[in-house]
Write a structure and sequence with these properties.
Elements lengths: L10 H6 L4 E8 L6 E6 L5 E2 L2 E3 L6 H13 L3 E12 L4 E10 L10 E7 L1 H7 L2 H9 L6 E5 L7
Parallel strand pairs: 1-6, 5-8
Antiparallel strand pairs: 1-4, 2-3, 2-7, 5-6
Helix pairs in contact: 3-4
Length: 154
């Protein structure tokens, strides 16, 4: 007897479900407790390295790829530190704390600047949503937050 999994959905059901983009980010923390940040070439904003998860990747593979692309550094993914949803854009981000295995570049094709920053300086450099992601990586348990693209929502 061939039983269907409760997770087998018809194409009609799948087409009717809301669509979300899934992204990943790496909060890379060095032995001095500094965080790796990039200043994006496209908008000049500071943030942790990250981007859209590709369909064939695991979360950890996506984090490692994004960190290398944006910083040049190889990392070890240590643990999940938070899930974040941009309710306006329909983007869900899985954020992971990472340990650097190699030194980063000073710039890449995606980042005009790559730098180690003190956690205390993150709030002045980054938008509130990215500040939360970085600081949450120093918490003992993963955080779950929603935001509007800039500010956290209650």
């Amino acid at each position: 007897m061939n039983q269907r999994s409760p997770f087998d959905y018809s194409s009609e059901v799948l087409a009717s479900l809301p669509r979300h983009s899934v992204s990943v980010a790496g909060i890379v923390v060095n032995s001095q407790g500094q965080v790796l940040a990039i200043r994006r070439r496209d908008n000049g904003h500071w943030q942790p390295p990250g981007g859209v998860l590709e369909t064939h990747e695991t979360f950890e593979q996506g984090v490692r790829r994004e960190v290398v692309e944006e910083t040049g550094a190889q990392v070890e993914v240590e643990r999940l530190t938070g899930l974040y949803k941009n309710v306006k854009a329909g983007i869900v981000a899985a954020v992971f704390r990472c340990r650097p295995l190699t030194e980063p570049a000073t710039e890449t094709t995606e980042a005009a600047e790559v730098a180690w920053v003190e956690p205390a300086d993150v709030e002045h450099l980054m938008a509130p949503t990215f500040t939360a992601r970085v600081l949450d990586a120093f918490e003992p348990v993963p955080q779950v937050r929603a935001h509007d693209g800039t500010h956290l929502l209650d």
